Amino acid sequence: MPVESHVASFAELAARTFHDLLRLRIDVFVVEQKCPYPELDGRDVEPGTRHLWLTRGGVVVAYLRILADPDGVARIGRVVVAPAARGAGLAGRLLTEALAVVGAGPCVLDAQTHLVDFYAGHGFAITGPGYVEDGIPHTPMRREGRPAA
Questions:
Q1: Is the distance from CB of 51 to CB of 13 less than 8 angstroms?
Q2: Which domains does the chain have, with CATH numbers?
């Protein structure tokens, strides 16, 4: 079954779609990773936020969001692949599509440290010391802007 890509602002999201995106995020970040934190942080609804997700047969299998930080830099976060869909290259596809949405500008993210090499393969470099958030080691990373072609 083919995987379909979607991108939308909050205002463009159907209620059912937003529910399904949040369900995946909560199932993985809060339940699977045992990190009780406020998943609804208010940033999903900001006008500059873009939600990018992949579906297979109408079911959400991967997701991330792109935030417009106040300094004008894009921030990728909440990168998640459903447990049943892991190992199929969906995270790479999702990140490639997100970077196409970001375009030529710089982009930052806070990688779970075990995924630093994955993000480095997409042009991100470590920008500072690691830290622990919700019991999980993270590493700040940045992809510099690309010159316009």
A1: yes
A2: 3-143 (3.40.630.30)
